[in-house]
Amino acid sequence: MADNPMLKFVGVEQDYPAKRAPGDRKGDFDEIARAYAMEKAEEQSARCSQCGVPYCSVHCPLHNHIPDWLKLTAEGRLREAFELSNSTSTMPEICGRICPQDRLCEGNCVIEFSGHGAVTIGSVEKYITDTAWKEGWVEPITPMRDRSNQSVGIIGAGPAGLATAEYMRGHGYAVHVYDRHDRAGGLLTYGIPGFKLEKEIVMRRVRRLKDSGIEFHEGFEVGKDATLEELRAKHDALLISTGVYKARQLKAPGVGAPGVVEALDFLIASNRKSFGETVERFENGELNAAGKNVVVIGGGDTAMDCVRTSVRQGAKSVKCLYRRDRENMPGSQNEVRNAEEEGVEFVWLSAPQAFEGQDAVSGVKAVGMRLGAPDASGRRTPQADPGSEFDIDADLVIKALGFDAEDLPGMFGSPDLSVTRWGTLRVDHKTMQTSLEGVFAAGDIVRGASLVVWAIRDGRDVSGHMHSYLKAKAASAPAPAKKKAARKKEAV
């Protein structure tokens, strides 16, 4: 009987792909980690304990079959590993790059609990599908049957929308994706910097969907180019997956001064530059950190993206102010370590009180914080510590305080579209359908600002509900109406 290729965690140490030296990586927006070689991917996969209750899968929002594709990788059966990985996720190589594995799969790995260090799940996941692309195993979608007499409209080409488009095309429907940006991908394209997710990784996914027959309407703004009602009349079902883009505001004296900018404006400008575009607000220095003392306010992943982008743009200094301590920040600890290696200074337990400067911001007046009793969410409430005020020089202040939903009923010209008190879309959670018949919603516009992996999960779930809805709709339509509908689709 052949030796078991697994259970090597006692004799084989945890080993992530080597990171480029901070001095090298600060000069560009390329990804910071090198890829595994096949032998190293097999070796690290073989550390998996194949435990009876795979907590890695349980804590993955997609419930990926992680132990199974680790075993296949360890055995050198990489194509099978890819097919299994791809069976539960539409973007495994993207999740392998940007998921906070330290909080999800790897953070719940059984051998991590035993002190041997988690299996490097994210790095192996990235390696499997990157290899699949290189070898030509990733092919356009082949529909299970032709249902193109029914069409689906998807508003928003972020991860939830792209995942839904893939599944619905797989079911055979005609799929149209509408997005207000000139490139699909949402925050994958314009919000996440290249050092975490190189843009070609996203663009090749979009090209595959286009090659599969999905029609993209880029630069299309619902409410201006067409109302929601007009799209409802055109399609048999709609999905709203716009994400949440309205920046949360900070109330403090001087917050409106030139040089105090929104995180997303800053990141979009940087990512557009990476596509070779001319960006006026970057060229005139407004959204360019070069030579400046930069202060980023916030402690989430967006704040980490901003501080590390500022370093690469040539900032004179970069500080991150966060009102809680390191242990209570929402962002990835891996990102904090990467930022510290690149020269970012974290000022924990601090918050801005005012912004100084006449014609432009010149500094931040801040105060030290302390953590009080837990609030309703269970997190300890930050409170100002009297007498702990201090000043920080700043030529550019970036507000990274999170995002809320935009006023979609107003933007879309659809006042009957019901929202929650947070502005997110209200859905029937059994069907994921909104208050409007045949209009579904998924991703951050329903759950609030969250992780890419949850958006993909929502896209997978809503596609099942939409498929059931469309099958029932087709079955209940009178025969003449079915023929008329088919002619209508052909004319579109």
UniProtKB/TrEMBL annotation:
Disordered, as annotated region: 473-492
Keyword RNA-binding annotated: no
A single GO molecular function term of this UniProt record: 4 iron, 4 sulfur cluster binding
Biased composition (Basic residues): 481-492
A Pfam family assignment: Fer4_20
Domain called Dihydroprymidine dehydrogenase: residue spans: 26-136
Residue ranges occupied by any FAD/NAD(P)-binding domain in the UniProt entry: 152-459
Necessary cofactors: [4Fe-4S] cluster
InterPro entries cross-referenced by the UniProt entry: DPD_II, FAD/NAD-bd_sf, FAD/NAD-binding_dom, GltD-like, Helical_ferredxn
Source organism superkingdom: Bacteria
NCBIfam families in alphabetical order: gltD_gamma_fam (TIGR01318)
Annotated protein name in UniProt: NAD(P)-dependent oxidoreductase
